[in-house]
Design a protein that fits this description.
Chain lengths: 487, 484, 487, 484
């Protein structure tokens, strides 16, 4: 930039240029160029590991999430949750700076743990890392042991920790090690041979829908089976406004979590965000350990209920059978609004498998399925799901693609609606396709995370949002002569 | 300091009581942390600046800080708002993801065509990039950006933590790419671990603008006597548009905005303007000084919050120009006097005597004081996330005696102060918002204008007044206590 | 028309004429003319009495609604329910025709009762009238006694009946006598001196939201107080799809209804649709009989819970206190989307009082409140409610007006949104104002009647619909430069 | 009659078995009711019409009938669809309310300005109107209608039950109002208690059109050889537009439509056309006959459901005209052959061998048979809500031997038959829809096209095929049985 050439004049982009490019980015030619991208990622549909770890931490009783790394990281994770839930997200960091790069972060961790323990009176501090300590290779195991030895925290105070490098996987991959570490820290040594506490460990996986957690608990109550719902954020991120701020509302009771290895059975409801945790269960208990699909739609919910029924030798409660029937009723009544409609869906792999399953149940076509960080196994699993239905034929699975890819796909091979988080809204604006908001994050609408998307009521909710979005669209876009009272 | 129906919002606020509160607050800490935090908070005495607040220090580990990082300062504040460039968050996925669309720096244009601010570009570092370095990928990214966005006027490369740790040479990549692609490609080493807050990110970014941009363009049209630049307005919710509007109404030509709705070539030609007007002193005073030194451009601070400060600023700005501009300024002030009075007449009776605690970044902890006062309110506590001494020097005189001034507060301090001082409004960020609402305290996000705005200039004040009123007087507060 | 004048030519209305009138009907001048209407009713917001009676009938166990009158009436009531609930609405009529006008409808009633009893095996037949027998003065008391005497129905078979003339009041006024008759028929003689069965009679009033009924039951379960929810249509009009059709799913158990006079207390949740029934309770039992406002919004829900708590000397359950806090939280978080927004609302009087109360809680302005058949007492009650809040200032109450009046009002003195049933959609189309659908009937969207609008969750639901409608509108109508990720 | 994967949908259907089913169904009734119902249902024998179904009788009291009333026939079918008139439901509030917007007779124009079909006008009788009579109010209503809707081309007064019982003289009111307002004001004594079904409402309405409308206008342009009227198309979901389109493609001029999207002055001039084409025979054959008698206009029935019947009808219609029209008809048929074949190729494999039970009104129980057959399906049971003998005479030959033909079925009969015959689709009305869906049986509303349409003509068939397929093959049916 310091060359000695004559200084150029300020130029303005002409309207013609803008119009030309505006058209061009909707073309097949542009799509080809766009899909060929190798380096640049544009509008990705995923965040980084520590976010998942922090979600887990918020889900345990009295637990303070603790970011070992730069303070800005913690601010980012916290505000991401603030915006989605419109709730506090108390978490601290140990504010590593340049000197950390040189000397490592042990001193920051010491001081941080001591202050956090003193100021915020947590029952547990859950430590996870952001990039910096991962790059420089901080040894958390040693550091935390040293912190105990040096009295920065009491010897018996639980400090689970997880390595959650942001340059590997996504937020769902940070969920797993943090959960495993918490369970191992609290109860890794508490397995009692032959003991069966009669309860179910239920592991939702990364899920930012508080309504889902409440629904899981309601289901288990209906079964009358004691349940330890792991990383239960339903109260942490949906607490009453009473005039008194409580930084730790709700969460999985630590005592229950500590007894996890003595449970009657363990079920995970996502497979991609719970792998390590489930391995840990399998390695440490002889009780049944099952990984089921996320129960979105009728069939996947059936699967969960049947499994619970089988594991606990209890019939599915009539209350839930009736709910099922009501969901099927609603779906039948509204099938004509979704039948053969094409959807573009983007999000986390387990969630995608669930929503796709639901759409297929409705005779809808999950036409563009986009998972921004995933692998061939996911692609295969998804393809197998698509193959179970004629409505899955000719549908497309896109892995390791982003929302700018999706924009090109929808511009050249359109769909009737998008389903996904708020980040898809630019596609819907540009292409005039409605967005049904679900998943994480939703920072431009209120309360949606309070409504379950799992289970039978979740199916009704999804159906309501989708069908009524189409009906709204008809009423807005139809000609006067087709504007009608009934739909 | 109990809350009463007092008309005098300062009643009961004394230096002694405030200092007592400070001490009680510090009691929460360990000795070590107490020693670190003590210099960052004090009861104000506008006449005696001996009470100087310590600032721009490392955040105490383990407290709940509101601060961001250097990257946040570079991406969110300085570079991100420049609309016609592709800003690459260089490193892992998260930093770009979390800062995507969350700062409301609005722009004019067609997204993905000639403007790109609402988009998120990242190199999405993977393990292999950490191990083998990301320079090659970065070069590919520059090429792809130019190919897919042919109207881009440049590329900024905003480094995240790992880049600075693994020894990548983004300067070399940028230099080559700039040459090949024939657009500015600006490397910005704003790794999050640098410095103590987003403040260093502003500075680093300013340096890169100085080194790579300033002076590389000249305006196509001849320079006029009334050409100015608007520095440090990030167009949150349209602020810069509101500010620009009245500056132009008084006859000035706003040739460049730094950086809200900014155009890089206009920024590059800013060295030609006659005056730099600086709103957010914190983030950009350095650049004003650079341009003064290098190009002899005078600069001045101003304040466009609330009609009192706006009128004062318009007159001060006009004083830099000839009589025509001075007359124009009076006309503009006259034109807006009645509409602003109507706003005050509507809202002041509902807000008279209400108190505010402010804790934000940039210019707002002092600049918004006058706007509250226009509504009959008092700021009884004010603090900055990432200020420097010069910010505090400008703040003491604006705050009443005995009010609380503080720096880089941790959340637990804020809780303590709110509990004791019971302000009628807390004006802070999203991380604090729901904490204080849970405590039953009205709140407005004052970084993002709580998704409203603009708040600047005459267009902004009616919106500001409405928003403050609805926050404080929303009937939902009457529902908080259950009758059972 | 038989005059001997020259036959005129077919004429076409010109585009100019259309444009002129199209503008004219939005003017103040037109509004004045329109508001001055004395005879013609255009697009009314209410139906007729028998519909309310039929709703009540559907709400009791094994009960077959029976229309004494023309068969077309029954078809109309049934299809109105079919379309709103997307559910069966089994009901019969005795198909009176011309000869009924001459001889009265006794023979039709005899034959009808006999056939209905034989074919549909009801546990109770609930008879109500449409216009014809009301005009000719059929004596139901005598007819039904005669039917028993002549063996068309068994002597002890319950046949409550109600006079529900369509030329008097609205659907809500048919609810009342039918409910009273059912309770009197089943249990009018069953009051046992000194007996207190410990339960609460809860009377929702005319309400076509199945979600509300479920919510009432859930509340009572949370209180652990036995409750007889009267005319409980929650299963009747939201039954599972199982492959087997059951004409009588759910409903208030007849045995419970028969014991109503021995309840610990009785609460009605609407005042305008339950007057006669509540008089009957007051006359026949010494237990507390309370008429509360429909519990829409936080305050009115509080009132209900406090009353239950007081009557049964039980604290409000923590579960509901938490729900309250979560509703207040949601309302606080979203207040800025509703604050000072103007609404036009139309519907039944009790429902209007509830929705207005909720809007005032949100700092919103219920600007045009329209009740198509009501009286000065309602107007006064509503004005008192408006007077409790600064946001009620300058709001307008319109009684005995219709939706064509409302169109004029909204055209000349606009609002930000309408809240009401589907019939308002033409106003929203013409004037570009969004419609938030609530109330009865909604025949152009799916599932909305499944979501409670009462109680704390109802407040969240209303809030979600309203706030997100505005946010949708912003995203659709804003300029490109104001299209943002966060809202 | 168990359901199997049979390719021959008629397999197992015999006269004997069907008659046995009829007997079993009748066993549900009391002796008296059995005697009344027995003549209304029978196994079909296309060659022997001795099995004639009794029809147009009073509905048995206490059964669950699908029938409406005379008012419904007048408001919903004949008068309501005429777009440019104000149709007043005269009497209490309900009748007009329930029939408001629920029949999908679409119209072109601007609601409330030049078209009024989507609106609901009523006199909303109160007790005092019953006691003192409603004539005065009615007159006021006419005046107000004309004042508020100056472009209205007329007013129809559709009496509800009370009007006929209290002795009001709506004829006198109408006559005076017509004179004063200078538009047709048509009194229609279609009280709901008249007759046994909506059928009498059609007839009464036809009479009023005959007495007050027909012949009162002439077309402004000269009459042409190809001028026709389309009678008995109510434009449900746009049916009439689809029908009109292909009639015009073959060179005919559709001068008036009775009454879908109808214009009263065009209807008034229908006596000038050269041919009346009648689709819904039931509701309007009487008018065709009147016009034939009085004006010598020939008429013919036709069927626009499904490509086979459409082609047949187009040829039969063309046969009434010259060679040009005949050639045009062939061209139209040729033009649509391939697209229709594509529809069949897509859906027939999914529908082949499926069976249907039809129970609707008007023309559909027989007219839709061919459309199902085009898709490889068979109607195995068909019934009318309000037919007359001539309808059944036209139905027997269309139905296969042993299939069930029935009249004014009660819901319990339908349930019994569906249980026994297990059709793959029930095609009936909204009152039946959810009953059969609860029983796990696919269903389409065939009065309202289930909010879809059009189903008429070439535009309609692809939609019909799609809808039938989605109803039968929706995967939601696979969810009905819980696995636990």
């Amino acid at each position: 930039m310091s060359e000695q050439c004559a200084v150029k004049k300020v130029t303005e982009i002409t309207t013609e240029e803008v119009e030309r490019i505006k058209e061009w980015i909707n073309t097949e030619e542009y799509k080809e160029k766009n899909m060929a991208r190798e380096g640049l990622v544009i509008n990705p549909a995923h965040a980084c590991q520590p976010l998942g770890a922090q979600l887990v931490a918020h889900g345990f009783e009295g637990t303070l999430p603790f970011v070992h790394g730069s303070q800005g990281c913690a601010s980012y994770y916290r505000s991401a949750f603030n915006r989605h839930f419109r709730e506090p997200a108390p978490a601290v960091s140990d504010a590593m700076t340049e000197d950390g790069a040189v000397f490592g972060g042990q001193n920051n961790l010491f001081e941080g743990l001591e202050n956090a323990y003193t100021l915020y009176h947590p029952k547990m501090i859950a430590v996870f890392t952001s990039c910096m300590p991962e790059v420089i290779g901080d040894d958390l195991t040693a550091f935390i042991q040293n912190a105990r030895n040096e009295g920065h925290i009491p010897a018996d105070f639980p400090v689970p920790y997880a390595n959650t490098p942001s340059f590997n996987g996504t937020h769902i991959h940070g969920y797993d090690p943090m959960l495993k570490s918490i369970l191992n820290t609290l109860g890794g040594d508490k397995k009692v041979e032959g003991k069966d506490n009669g309860s179910l460990n239920l592991i939702p996986g990364f899920d930012a829908c508080t309504g889902n957690y409440r629904e899981y608990k309601r289901y288990m109550k209906a079964f009358d089976i004691p349940c330890t719902l792991m990383a239960d954020i339903s109260d942490s991120f949906d607490s009453p406004l009473t005039g008194t701020y409580n930084p730790y509302p709700g969460g999985t009771p630590l005592e229950d979590a500590a007894d996890a290895l003595n449970a009657h059975a363990t079920i995970a409801l996502q497979q991609y965000s719970t792998k390590e945790t489930m391995k840990w269960f399998s390695a440490n208990t002889d009780a049944p350990v099952e990984t089921l699909p996320m129960p979105i739609g009728v069939k996947k919910t059936d699967e969960l209920l049947m499994k619970i029924s089988e594991l606990f030798d209890k019939p599915v409660p009539q209350e839930l059978i009736d709910e099922r029937g009501r969901a099927v009723d609603a779906m039948t009544d509204a099938h004509q609004y979704l039948h053969n409609k094409k959807f573009a869906i983007y999000g986390d792999p387990d969630w995608l498998l669930g929503v796709v399953s639901f759409l297929l149940e409705m005779g809808a076509r999950p036409y563009h399925i986009l998972c921004s960080r995933s692998n061939k196994k996911f692609k295969k699993t998804m393809q197998e799901l698509l193959d179970t239905s004629p409505y899955g034929a000719d549908c497309n699975i896109w892995i390791n693609k982003d929302l700018w890819h999706l924009r090109s796909l929808c511009a050249t091979d359109p769909v009737d609606a998008l389903i996904g988080d708020a980040h898809g809204k630019f596609i819907t604006r540009d292409l005039g396709i409605p967005l049904i908001r679900a998943g994480f994050p939703i920072m431009d609408r209120v309360n949606l995370h309070r409504y379950p998307t799992i289970g039978y009521q979740g199916a009704i909710n999804l159906l309501t949002w989708i069908a009524n979005t189409f009906l709204d669209q008809v009423d807005v876009t139809c000609e006067d002569r087709n504007f009608e009272m009934m739909r | 300091m109990e809350k009463t129906n007092k008309k005098n919002p300062l009643e009961g606020i004394t230096k002694e009581k405030t200092q007592e509160l400070v001490e009680k607050t510090l009691d929460l800490y360990t000795e070590k942390a107490r020693a670190k935090r003590a210099p960052h908070m004090s009861a104000n005495d506008p006449e005696d600046s001996g009470c100087a607040i310590r600032s721009n220090r490392k955040t105490v580990p383990g407290v709940m800080s509101a601060r961001g990082c250097a990257y946040a300062g570079a991406k969110g504040v300085v570079w991100g708002p420049i609309r016609d460039m592709v800003h690459v968050s260089h490193g892992p996925i998260g930093c770009g993801y979390y800062s995507w669309g969350t700062r409301r720096n609005l722009v004019d244009g067609t997204m993905g065509v000639d403007v790109f601010s609402a988009m998120q570009f990242t190199s999405d570092f993977q393990e292999r990039d950490i191990v083998y370095g990301g320079d090659e990928k970065l070069r590919k990214i520059c090429d792809e950006a130019k190919e897919l966005f042919p109207l881009t006027k440049g590329i900024s490369i905003l480094s995240e933590c790992p880049v600075g740790l693994i020894g990548d040479d983004i300067n070399a990549v940028a230099k080559n790419a700039a040459k090949d692609l024939e657009i500015p490609v600006v490397p910005c080493n704003c790794e999050g671990f640098r410095g103590v807050s987003q403040s260093l990110g502003h500075h680093i970014s300013n340096d890169t603008i100085r080194d790579h941009i300033i002076g590389t363009r000249e305006f196509a049209e001849p320079i006029g006597d009334y050409d100015i630049a608007l520095i440090g307005d990030y167009n949150i919710g349209g602020d810069a548009w509101a500010s620009k509007k009245i500056l132009e109404e008084m006859g000035l030509n706003v040739k460049a905005i730094w950086t809200g709705d900014g155009q890089i070539e206009h920024i590059a030609a800013t060295h030609q303007v006659k005056l730099n007007l600086i709103h957010c002193y914190r983030s950009m005073n350095y650049m004003a000084k650079v341009m003064e030194e290098k190009y002899g451009i005078p600069w001045m601070e101003f304040n466009f919050f609330g009609p009192t400060q706006i009128a004062k600023s318009l007159r001060e700005i006009a004083a830099q120009f000839d009589d025509k501009i001075k007359e124009n300024a009076e006309k503009v002030i006259a034109k807006y006097t009645e509409p602003m009075q109507k706003v005050i007449d509507e809202y002041r009776p509902r807000l008279e005597g209400k108190t505010v605690m402010v804790f934000v970044g940039g210019l707002r902890p002092r600049h918004t004081i006058g706007a509250y006062e226009d509504l009959g309110m008092k700021v009884i506590a004010s603090g900055y996330e990432f200020a420097h001494t010069d910010d505090y020097d400008r703040t003491y005189p604006e705050m009443d005696k005995g009010t609380l001034v503080f720096d880089d507060a941790s959340e637990i301090e804020l809780e303590k102060w709110v509990e004791a001082m019971r302000p009628d409004l807390v004006a802070s960020g999203v991380k604090e918002k729901y904490v204080f609402q849970k405590a039953g305290v009205p709140f407005r996000q004052m970084h993002s204008w709580d998704y409203s705005g603009p708040y600047h200039a005459y267009d902004g004040f009616p919106i500001f007044a409405r928003d403050i009123d609805m926050a404080i007087n929303s009937p939902t507060w009457g529902l908080v206590k259950a009758p059972f």
